[in-house]
Amino acid sequence: MSENSKKLKFVRIFLVAVLLWSSAVVLFPQLAIAGPAEKLYSKAKKSFYNLKSSAEKMSHRDQWLNTVDNFLEVYQSDPKSYPAYKAIYTVGKLYEGLYKVSKNSKDLNMALGYYGKLIQEFDREQLKDDALYRRGEIYFHKKHYALAEKEFEKIIRYFPKGDRVASARKRLQTTVALLPKPVQITPLNKVAKAPSRPVAKSQKNKTQGKPTSLITQLEKLSPVTGVEGEKVASLPSIAPIKPEAENKVPLVILDPGHGGKDFGARGKHGAIEKDLNLKISKKVKRILEKKYKLRVHLTRSDDTFIPLKERGPIANRMKADLFVSLHANAAKRQAAHGIETYYLGRGLSEQAKETAARENGELVYSIPDDQTQQILADLISNNKMNDSSRLAGRVQGYLYQKAKKRYKTVKNLGVKEGPFWVLHAANMPSILVEVGFVTNAKEEARLKDEKYLNLLAEAVARGIRDFLHENGPMI
Ligand SMILES: [Zn+2]
Predict the structure, then answer these.
(1) 432: part of which helix (H) or strand (E)?
(2) pLDDT of residue 124
């Protein structure tokens, strides 16, 4: 064989191989190298079908939220990707599905939020009219007819060739009919009757009306799978859709302990508590905002000194829903290690008193102990204490569970009561987290491990999310 024909033969074999490979990929798409988002998406889909396969599972809020988390991980792994896009839509549907079981209107607000996120954040058009339609249906269900009207109108205006336009027109008619009529000046004895309520209407006609429609949609609940017909309309000039009543999204105050001239505890190998607290707080903030769509405010976002007395009032002024102070621990006994979470109480153990004394800083020395106890006793309201202890339980539970994943010997010091000044000034459920002892060499080293800090932040965020979700009617 000549050199040339050898070369030709090689090229031919190569081309055949390429052809075989590409047809194999077409026939068996799983052969294609799936990105991390795709992999996470198929994992999330599995958890979805798992949930849907069992009525028992569907009766547990936890199971729904776990599935939600799986889809949110898809989004986090690659927020601009197509799987992330489908995942956000599915999260909206999951919250609608959860609402069907929980009847907790917060779940519907979450669904509204995620559909809104899909519309605002992504350039892809495919699911936007579906998201608008779901938002319209939810507003209708909530009897916010004017808002529902706007969503249905957007579909007609921006997606005139989409597959939602016909149903949007129908729903728009029903919605407009329910809008309050303009007030007419009529003699007092002939005052117009208020427009009839949709519930009464749907009871008269059981095959039509909104509850049936919402439920029909929910029954179609499934993760987004195939690619639907492309939408021709574009959405460049669409008015920004505000998240559902902003003030209804819970506000979390994170309080990174110490700062500025107040360094907090110090480790032998360079760990400085104030810096560590700020670092973790920022991580928690990011997760709460991005993953759980909550509003978050930090009492300090840099190395500033804020007196202890002023921290709680910040939360009060902002009408926050909860207050979480983040700290690292210290003890004279170098062997002391572990994670603990405090809520306001009298302080039962010596350790709790020692920690509180240290965290209370200048305040504790200016007020005699018995007086402190007296003031605390008067200030602690039972409701706040119960809620705070429940919040502490959630956060501490996740902290230990997640921390143990990275370091098996992590110690669970549990939930404790303690006389912390920073907690009593806040009028909402409030806790103080001690993520570990910087005075213990092993734990100090762990607290420098970025992956460990991420796990701790994830745990605090998840505890907060669980607490807020449970605050409504339980399943
Ligand atoms: Zn501290």
Answers:
(1) strand 430-437
(2) 83
For residue 385, the CA-to-ligand 1 centroid distance in Å is 21
pTM of the full structure: 0.52
Residue 230 has pLDDT above 70, yes or no: no
Cα 273 to middle of ligand 1, angstroms: 7
In the chain, where the domains are located: 1-32, 33-244, 250-470
CA of 259 to the centre of ligand 1 (A): 10
CA of 166 to the centre of ligand 1 (A): 60
Distance 264 CA to ligand 1 centre (A): 5
> What's domain 250-470's superfamily in CATH?
Zn-dependent exopeptidases (3.40.630.40)
Q: Look at domain 33-244 and name its CATH class.
A: mainly alpha
pLDDT at 193: 45
Rounded Cα–Cα distance for residues 255 and 246 (Å): 22
Instruction: Of 120-134, 354-368, 444-458, give the lowest mean pLDDT range.
Output: 354-368
8 Å CB contact between 129 and 159: yes
386 CA distance to ligand 1 middle (Å):
23
User: Is beta strand 251-256 parallel, antiparallel or unpaired with respect to 295-298?
Assistant: parallel
